[in-house]
Amino acid sequence: MKRHFYILIAGALLLVVQACNNTKDVEAELHRADVYMDEHPELALEALEAIDTGALTTRETQAKYALLYSMALDKNYIDVTNDSIIAPAATYYTNHGTADDKLKTNYYLGRIAMNVGDYEKAMTHFVKAEQYADKCKSLVAVGLLYNAKMHVYNYLYDTENQIEAAQKSASAFLLSKDTTRYLNAINGVLTGYLQVRDTINAGAYLNKFKQFWPSLTISQKSKYYSGMLFLYADKDNLSRENLLKQYFNDIDNPEIIHWISVAETYLHLGQYENASLALSNYLKYGGETDAAFYYVRALVQESMEDYKSALDSYKLYVNFNSKRDADLYVTDARFIEERIDAETRLLRKNYTIVISVLTLFIVLLLVIIIGGRIRKGLMLERKMHKVEMEGVERRLQAEQLERQELEAEKDKYVEMYNATCKDIKRLKKALQENKLDKDVCRLVEERLNVLNNFVAANISGSFTTVAYNELARLMADQAHFLNSTRASFHIAHPQFLAYLKKKGLTDEEIEYCCLYCIGLNGSEILAYLNKPSIYNISAVLRKKLDVEKKNKIDAFLQKKMQEFD
Question: Which of 1.25.40.10, 1.10.8.60, 1.10.10.10, 3.30.230.10 is the CATH number of 2-236?
Answer without folding.
Answer: 1.25.40.10
